Amino acid sequence: MNTNHSAYDEARRAAVESNNPIAYLRLGIIYFYGTHTERNVVLARYFIGKAITMCSGKPEMTVLIRKHLQEECDTGNFGLLSVAHSYLSKFYPSFSRKKAIEDFMADKDTFAAKVLYSQCTSNNTSEILIHQQESLLRQLYAPIIPDDSFWSTKTIDSVLARDEGELTVCLDNFKETYQEVCDKYNIDKQDILHLDPTALFPYISPTTLYRLRRQIFKCILSFRHLDPLITRKYLTHLCDNEYLLDICPKIKDYDAVFLLISFVELNMDIEAIGLTHLKLLRSFQNDDLEPLIAHINGCINRLTKAGISHPFHPFTKETLPTITL
């Protein structure tokens, strides 16, 4: 949602004075994006929840709110829908988890499938403004993209940031265990991205990051019938990481347990990287270039620390690449 500070003030005033669900929804969306105000997911969840609750017994308003949220999903802003997951039964009473799973597995772009995906982790609020995140990172790192010869003699492990390094380790574990489960139970294996060095350094793109998230979620859905606890409890509590980890020891198959734990950890790794990307975007929008400078210089410092010869010098405000969004 594009707005300015006066629009933010107007949204606050409208919510208080009109007591209208759409006004509260608009205020919640503004807080979620943090546009011309401090981003506050807790307040966003509160105001969006209030808007949905106010629509009880008002089907026409419920439809209108669902339309607004669906439009956000259509632009790839799945994180916004995740803050409303606890109100699912109120604003989307016809939602069928079984149908949503079928749609998601068949790659059908339905709202039900989008709602289901938004619940794949309790913390996917970074999955917004993807195109802007993508553009920012591409322009920021344009001066230090290595050519193919760089990878012929160097190893990626020594230059990855901590979160990206943890992501690769967890992803390798997930792939290995998923293959074992599929082989053991004759399950059709879903595709999982191979992340080569050029996809991870100097950064992993938001598009690649969230494509990976969709794939690992599809993997979990592919063996949902393996244990009744997976179907009845695990898949109905996807918004609660602690619950998911607590229920794992009750599932009989050890490989499945390890895979489910890896799924939670992968989602957490993906979100950690996604939040870093989103914070960089927020910093740029707020005219605060220091986090961008620190991020690209951190990358250069890892090259130096790894003993890799390179022509790059630390960036300052004056030498930072020009970025336009």
Descriptive overview:
The chain has 325 residues and is an all-alpha fold. The protein folds into two domains: 5-118, no CATH class; 130-305, no CATH class. It contains 17 helices and no strands.
Which key features would you list for this structure?
325 residues, flat, mainly alpha
Unreliably modeled segments: none
Strand tally, please? 0
Mean pLDDT rating: 88
Question: Which percent bin holds the helix content?
Answer: 55-70%
- First-last Cα distance: 15 Å
**C-alpha-based Rg, rounded:** 21 Å
Element pattern in H and E:
HHHHHHHHHHHHHHHHH
Structural class: mainly alpha
Count helical runs: 17
Overall structural domain count: 2
List the helices and strands and how they pair.
Elements: H1 5-18, H2 21-33, H3 41-54, H4 59-74, H5 78-82, H6 88-91, H7 97-105, H8 111-118, H9 130-140, H10 148-153, H11 162-185, H12 197-200, H13 206-222, H14 228-232, H15 241-247, H16 254-285, H17 290-305
Helix pairs in contact: 1-2, 2-3, 7-8, 9-16, 11-16, 13-16, 16-17
Summary of the model, kept short:
This protein has helices at 5-18, 21-33, 41-54, 59-74, 78-82, 88-91, 97-105, 111-118, 130-140, 148-153, 162-185, 197-200, 206-222, 228-232, 241-247, 254-285, 290-305. It has 325 residues and is mainly alpha-helical.
